[in-house]
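Protein fold
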Amino acid sequence: MTRLCLCLYLSVVAARYLNNRNYADYMGRALVKIHAEARFGLDSSQLAKLLLEGNLAKLQELLDRNAGIYALAITDCTEMKETCSGQKILFATNPALIRSGGIRTEDLIRYPYVVLRRPSSSILDILEHQAKGGAGKGTIIGRVYSISTIPTFIEDYRLWMKDPFRNDDLWRRYLISMTTCLSGGLGFWILMELFLKLRRIERKNARLREHDLLRDADIFLRQFEAKERQLEEEERRSHIQFEAYIGRIRELERKLQNVDDYRRSAETLIRELEEEKTQQSVAFRDELERTNLQKQALQAEFEKYRKDPRKDRPGASTALEIAINPQFANSFEKKVYSAIANSPRCQKGDWNVVTNFDVAIGRGGSQFVDCMVISRDCLVVVEAKNYSGRIVAEGDLENTAWLCHSADGTTMEVKSAWGTNPYHQVREYTMSLMNLVKRGRWKLSIYGVIVFPERTDIAGLDEKIGKFYRVTTFDRLVGLLGNLDAEARRMNAFTKRPSPEQIENLIRGK
């Protein structure tokens, strides 16, 4: 409201300035016109003649001709003395043409006048009349008073404001100027309000974007800390496990110390286990150091963004968004993510792909998935295992360890972050994800997929474990995801289907 009043006030000031120019121009033109028509003097003989002839229409026309500059009033005074008491106004300029109103008899004493005489019929009187420039002998029949009607601009403007729609040339100019300025001021106010509203919307969006970024950064920081604790716990458990193995072997060595072959075998096995332990410890420490570096980088970008005074501008959050982007534990995880992200379904927006997402939020622990595919009908947890060779189960597929027989003849266990084997891990992740999905009102299928490099031999495993779990290789991964999506679509054909963005917002708690 204050800005509107200010704009209207400035419009009125501008209109007053323009109308002052209009007043000066109008009055200048009127004076030039009168000068051109030689109307600065009063033709008293013409007025007397018209009065005597009774030509009232012509007389009134002459009285009204220059009402904007001066008005005329004819009285019945026939005396020569200066003050004529009791005189009456016979004819006068039309009051409607005089901005200050009508002419009052008592005010005539303040104005100059000319005596009106009856023209003489004598030739000598006529010649004397011409020689004296209109003055001469003859019976006095009245007076004509000249009243100036030129107001100052302030006076004229105040009169116009009392009656702005009066039919007057100058006042019409006043009205046009005022209307134009007020319209311009109102239009400028509307444009200014639109601009300010856009700025408010931009600031609001910037604040919302800042809130989301800070929240995501905080979540990732907590996830990094949980991942650090998880790595430390895994290293501790691995250390205890290796120590137990070595202890049992040393005990076996003591029992077989008199048998040289067994002792040498035990020493070799102990050395291999210690080397593997050392390698795994180095790997854990490298992963922990990489996680610490990522966390420090994210914290640095977080503090930098929070202190940036220009963070409401577009592009100010780019560095923080890059720091929040998912990281990959190894090149195979990155390869799996790239294959899914570059698939036609992802490019068209049918799928969303999320990495490094903690599906155990709110459960007192952390479970980071390698990759998760979100469609309108299902969610697929993809666990990438970078083991090449022949993969077999030590016993029962679902409940025993999985082993990888490499081409060089070595055998190693396929590691899993949770449970005995990768199936246990991906099943635990899908169950945790199911708890997040239950917060919504949509019916969605949740699958788990374990993927190995393309040349890995998985013939020793069942490619389908139950209804919702699959084992595949990299070259068949995208096709399998499409088949799972189609299967979920058939199961949920008659239910409401949300967008991938809505599902992602649901599991992120937005």
